[in-house]
Amino acid sequence: MTQLPRILLTSLPLEVLHHVSCYFCSHCLSDDFMRDIRWDRGMKQIWSDQPRIELLNLSKSCRLLRTVAQPVLCHFVCVNETKRQEFFSFVRTLVERPDLRSNVRQVVAGHVWPDWSGGLDSEGPTPEEQVSKPKLIATEVRDGLRKGDWRPLRDILGSSYVPRFQGGPQDERFIPLVSLLFHLTPNLESAVFACNGWPSHETAKALERWNSLIKLTSLKELFFGPNAKEEVEQGGFLLDDVFCLLGSVPELEVLHCDVYHRTGVDPRTRPALADPQCFPHLKELVLTNWHLDIGSLRHVLGAVGPGLTKFTLWQCLQHNIIHNFPSWRQETSGIVLDEALDALQPWRSTLTELSFRLHYHEDDRFDDPVPRSLSRIRELRVLDVDANSFGSAWLAKDEFASVLPPSFCTLKSLRGALRDGFAHMIAVPLGILEAIRAGQLPSLKKIELTDPLEVESIICTGQQWRDTDREWERLAGSFCLAGADLVFRDLDRYEERHDAPTPNGESEEADGYLLGFDA
After folding, report:
1. What is the Cβ-side half-sphere exposure of residue 118, based on CA atoms within 13 angstroms?
2. Together in a domain, 66 and 102
3. CA-to-CA distance for 84 and 127, rounded, in angstroms?
4. Does residue 82 belong to any structural domain of this protein?
5. What Cα–Cα distance (Å) separates residue 513 from each residue in 155, 224, 293, 461?
6. What is the rounded CA–CA span in Å between residue 52 and residue 76?
7. What is the three-class DSSP state of 463?
8. CA gap 205, 208 in Å, rounded
9. Which SUPFAM superfamilies does this UniProt record tie to the protein (predicted)?
10. How far apart are CA 469 and CA 296, in angstroms?
């Protein structure tokens, strides 16, 4: 048998090696990669991106592979700040290697900083510095931030003004580097920041001038929120401070904010947005775990352009927030679905998906007005809403179906009226089924509800539970015959997927991620 000649990987053309490297890159494999990194799916997967680790190990085998792989490794950057040296190392690489800056497309940054203050104030090199190069720019960064005068910041930002972050909160030492990262990555498309306390009012104001110096025209998607559930206890940040940081992203299409803080700012003292439509191209706006009054919501929407297609507003997901901050209950209760729909009327011809939730475990909000304006959102296809947000309309099958627009395709509903159980849960599906049979909802193909058996287990047992099971089975069969699906969703699994992210754990894979840039 003839033995085939052995082909060395390094003997392949550079173009082929580049294509091989791209097979290890999540950004190259999927344009929708960042869209899949949602808070409702958790962020632990980000720190275990095995293909990226394999590419990093492969690049260490020889100088040629390292040269080819480095630009690809820059496409998707995940900074786990439990290792403070990693972020410094990557920023240093971009400062020293201008040729790599244009390769950065997606950034995920989460930090816990358990020893940041000690690293700033301690004398002598850290263990990482002892085994690395004699002169690390990380040391220069820390020294420069202490003095408020780090030259790369001045040079790249084109300004001699650098805020003096001395003795401030930990985020004031992190945000300058995040801002610098923005300025070093002209082709950045997507960014995720899970950072406790970011932004504080002070850092937002200090960085507002920095962000006015450039325009990140390539940044399309921005996701940010707290790094841990402990942020609930500490508060979060004001929505107006977010706008101070977003003035440099005029082409933004997706903004996803997951935070735990009130945003009720006095309109008379609230800073006006520089442009009434500072997000003229925004298509998707997601505000989860916010505490909004209707005035704040209208203020946010006033910055959105005419092309909004997806809107999510989830308020107060965690019950302990209401317990710790009882004054927020009244503020958050002030906005109901009908008010939100009125505020969204400028997008009634473009909005296709709407998600609205008020997670009050102990309240059944039957006094909410019927959301008549829902039918005026002509292109709406997907509605994800609490049953109780419809008030009494949820209990009347004919009335509920009458407020749905003809374009409706999917209804997702959780937390029905638990206090009375099956009788309330069954009304809406029956009304929708009759509307489908009558041809009133020709596009409706899917209805997702909280598992009715779970609801019934709270209030009934034995024969009642078995009767409920059979009744829902018959109803699901009737929907199938009518050309639609009735799907039951497990509430516990749903809430587990939609909890705030907790990317606090360290990962063995992430520990060495940025080592590929150290040489």
Report:
1. 7
2. no
3. 12
4. yes
5. 28, 22, 43, 53
6. 9
7. helix
8. 5
9. RNI-like (SSF52047)
10. 44
Do 60 and 192 fall within a single domain?
no
Q: What is the 3-state secondary structure (H, E, C) of 396-447?
A: CHHHHHHCCCCCCCEEEEECCCCCCCHHHHHHHHHHHHHHHHCCCCCCCCEE
pTM of this prediction? Answer: 0.72
Helix, strand and coil content of the chain, in percent to the nearest 5, comes to 45, 15, 40
The sign of the dihedral angle between the CA atoms of 80, 85, 88, 89 is: negative
Q: Which two tokens stand for residue 202?
A: 């002070």
Strand order across the beta sheet in which 76-80 lies? 76-80, 106-111, 190-195, 221-225, 254-262, 284-291, 310-315, 353-358, 382-386, 410-414, 446-450, 485-489
Structure tokens at 258: 């997951």
Q: Which of 209, 227, 245 is the last residue of a domain?
A: 227
**Are 131 and 205 in a shared domain?**
yes
What is the count of structural domains for the chain?
A: 2
Pick the residue with more confidence: 173 or 309?
309
Can you give the residue range of the structural domain that contains 172? 78-227
Q: How confident is the model at residue 451 (pLDDT cuts 50, 70, 90)?
A: low
In terms of average pLDDT, the best of 23-27, 308-312, 479-483, 493-497 is 308-312
Closest CA to 387 of 467, 331, 452: 452
**Per the structure block, which two tokens stand in for 287?**
């505000």
Q: Based on C-alpha coordinates, what's the Rg of the chain?
A: 26
CA–CA separation, 501 and 38 (whole Å): 9
Three-state secondary-structure class, residue 231: helix
User: What letter would DSSP give residue 43?
Assistant: S
DSSP string, 137-153: HHHHHHHHHHHT--HHH
Q: Do 126 and 218 have their domain in common? A: yes
Any idea what the Cα angle at residue 363 is, between residues 359 and 369, rounded to 5°? Answer: 85
Co-location of 149 and 17 in the same domain: no
- Rounded-to-integer distance, Cα 194 and Cα 192, Å: 7
